[in-house]
Amino acid sequence: MADLEGFRSPLSSNANLGKVAIVTGGGTGIGRATARELARSGAKVAICGRRSGPLEAVREELAAAGHDCLAVPTDVRESEQVRSFLDRVDERLGAVDVLVNSAGGQFDAALEDISLKGLRAVHRLNVDATWDVTQQVAARWMIPHRSGFVAFVGFSPRRGMPTVIHSSMARSALETFAAGIALEWSKYGIRAVCIAPGLIQTEGMLRYGGQALIDELAKQVPMKRAGSAEEVGSMIAFLASPGGAYLTGATITIDGGADSWGMGMPPPDLEA
Questions:
Q1: Interatomic CA distance for residues 138 and 136, integer angstroms
Q2: Distance from first CA to last CA of the chain, Å, rounded?
Q3: Contact (Cβ atoms closer than 8 angstroms) between residue 70 and residue 46
Q4: Of residues 141, 42, 124, 40, the one with CA closest to residue 86
Q5: Which residues contact 154 (CB under 8 A, 6 or more apart)?
Q6: How far is CA 154 from CA 57, 144, 195, 199, 272, in A?
Q7: Model pTM?
Q8: Predicted pLDDT at 262
Q9: Per DSSP, what are the bridge partners of residue 193?
Q10: pLDDT level of residue 5 (50, 70, 90 thresholds)
C-alpha cells in the first residue's frame, strides 16, 4: 500500500522550525512526502517540478494545514529556469537551509538497447541537473551563511539493477557527490547525505508493472514488503534536523534489507 496504515511521523512539530527547504520533484512520490514532512516539522518549503498540477495539489494540501509552501513549475535541467525559481524562493521565503534533490527519472531497457542518447538523457536529469541546482543553492546561500544540508536520492540495491543500469550509474554518482561535499564543504558548515531507497511504492513505481509487480518484488526484500514514501521523507526530514547534525558524507539505504541480501533472484539463463 502507498501509505503505511497508521503511519505517524517520529518528529516533533518544531524539529525543523525556522528553516527554509527546497524539494525538487516535490509534486509526487518521495519528493511530495519529504515536502510534507519538512513542512509538518516546522520548515517553510519551496517545491518545483515540471508539471504544475501535482505541485499545486501539494501546495494546496500544505496551505490547508497551515504550512507556508511555494510551488513553481521548473525544469531543473534548464539552468535559467533554476535561477528564476531560486529568485522566487529568495523573494518569498528567504535564505535556504535545506536542499532535497528528489527530481529524477529513467526508463527501463536492456543494457544493449540503451543508446548513448538515452544514457545522456538520464544522466542530464539525475546528475547534471542535480549538480547545477546544488551549486547554485550553495553559492547563493549555504557557503556565504556557513551552514546547510543537502540530500540526494540514490538507488538500492547499490550494485546496480537489471534494465536500469544507466540510471544506477547516475545514482551512484550522487553517493560520491555527497561524500565530496563532506570532504570539501564541511569547512563551510554544509552537510550532505545520499539516501538510497529500495522498493518504495509510489506512482512512478506502479507505472512499471502495477501492484502485481510490486508484490512480487516485495518477496525478495527481507522485510517482505515495499516501503512507503513517508518512511523515506521522514528520514530525510530527520537528517535535516539537529538530530542528524553529526552525519555527513554517508549513503543510507532505506530498503528493508534488500541491499544486504543482494538481488534475491536467480541470474538469467545463459544464451547459446
A1: 5
A2: 41
A3: yes
A4: 141
A5: 171, 172, 174, 175, 194, 195, 196, 197, 251
A6: 26, 27, 6, 12, 35
A7: 0.93
A8: 74
A9: 151
A10: low
CA 197 to chain centre: 9
For the domain spanning 20-256, the CATH number is: 3.40.50.720
Dist CA 79 CA 223 (whole Å): 41
Within 10 angstroms of residue 113's Cβ, the number of other Cβ atoms is 8
Q: What is the mean pLDDT of residues 60-76?
A: 96
In total, the chain counts a number of residues equal to 272
C-alpha cell at 80: 535559467
pLDDT (mean) for 59-63: 96
Would you call the peptide bond into 157 cis, given omega within 30 degrees of 0 as the criterion?
A: yes
User: What digits encode the pLDDT tens for the residues 131-155?
Assistant: 999 999 999 999 999 999 999 999 9
